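We examine the record.
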Amino acid sequence: MMTLTAPLVFADLLAQAKKLRETNAWKPFRPGVGAHWLYEDEDGAAAVLLHYEPGAQVALHEHVGYEQMLVLEGEQSDEAGSYPAGSFVINPPGTSHSPRSAAGCVALLIYEKAVRFP
């Protein structure tokens, strides 16, 4: 777990995400989904790059705090719709979904609090 004590800057995050996609710097998150944690705080606040392999899906989960997601590459979808690269989605507390990617994608997710899996 990495608690921030000073600003954390990622210059040209898009280029960094593209380079990361070609490496094995991803930790297993869910089957077919790798995670590269930018930070993770003790209270559940976090920022993470998620790399979905084609056809990967994350199980249904509930947002306890706000989740903000920016699709950097590819397309992600859930029960509410499809989100191509450049889409910014805010999932408020109390909402649930099961995100997936048919062709694969990379997305930046920022969590206010950790999500809850049933």
Summary: The first helix runs from residue 13 to 21. The first strand starts at residue 27 and ends at 30. Residues 31-111 form a domain with the Jelly Rolls fold (CATH 2.60.120.10). The chain has a mean pLDDT of 91.
